Amino acid sequence: QEIVLEDAVYAGVTRSNLGDLRLFNAAATPVTQALCEPESATLARVYVQMLRPIPITSATAADASTTKIQIETSAAVTVEVQPDAPSDAAPEAAQRISAYVLDLGAQDLEDPVRALILDWQSPDGASEVPVRVLGGEDLEHWSTLTPRTLLVRAQSGNSPENLRLNQSRIAWPEARHRYLRIERADEGPALNLVSVTGEFVQHPPLPAPRSFPALAQAGDARERASYFFDAARLAPLISARVLLPEPNMALKVALDSRANNKAPWQTQWSGEVFDLASEQTAARTPAIRFSATPHRYWRLRVLRGQDTLAGAAPALELGYRPHRLRFLAQGAAPFLLAYGSARETSSAPLRCEDFLAGLSPDQLQAMTATVSAGDAAPAMDVGGSQALQAPPPPPRPLRQWLLWAVLVLGAGAVSLMALHLLRRLREEP
Fold first, then answer.
1. Minimal CA–CA distance to 265: which of 214, 315, 300?
2. Calpha distance 176→68 (Å, rounded)
3. pLDDT digits (tens, 9 = 90+) for 188-202
């Protein structure tokens, strides 16, 4: 079973790594569980699309000049070679295909492309041809995607059952480009492309982060242009939005965070935030993104535009994606999810990638069901107020106390000896 953790869990836990989460069955027996990290990527979908190659030709002018060769020997023999005089008509230019260009934008293909599959022929009958692939946003500036790769097409005979070699796929890391350019990497004749198929990768969007307003805290007189907030939960925060008190306002700010009131501040983001509005349109700063952090306390520093606030204070909205708790349905239901015990001192929870690792992903998915908290089982206090208090430190053993006593007595004896020696040195003439 898997359950998505609710917001109340993050507001009640006492450890940022969620090590105080426990799941019990109806007999109050703990069940095997693991914690799955929040989603940071979705499964990509690969699809193919036929592309239309556009040949790029280069013109080579015919040679219209005349050549005269004259050889004279000592025996007074002269050999003269004179070609026919050129005609008055202008020579025709020979056209040669130098490359093929693919316009992905014209086919409304915005997903990143990772490979091309070519159906090709070489005018000189070559069985292997080196080519390169370039990418660009215009037809003038190009970046190299594949500097050199070999296309191979050969077979041992003309019969269909004979052995064949076919290497026509050109791959590279995912890239987004408006244009792709395919050209031969040597001095041989240009390819004849019969067809081109592209492999594209589509990444489904991640779910929107779970957002909540941060609680404003009292300011610090030493930092007049700073505003302090409390997230009031230990969640893996990944986004923020600064809410300005009035429309048509822009500020340059820095956003800092820390785990507790004694830790140093860490800057998560800095830049300009704005909120613009008119009768026709409106615009505001996109959500601020940063690496996941469980910090509870946040500070917003205004670097420019503090006077435009006129005493008003901006607000802060934070967001996160929740964890999933995966567990085995051992024993009878209902199952109880408990959290918030300060007395729980176990190590970090087991991660999902280390749980049931012997099963394949398909097997695990087929055996997993998603559940939710039942409406008939509201949150309740199961441990009392004493569970929120950290346990007292264990008493020191007698041997440790005796050792500390010996060390203190020894340090005192050394100090007395040093004072006595100093007094004798002062008394000597």
1. 300
2. 56
3. 888 888 999 999 998
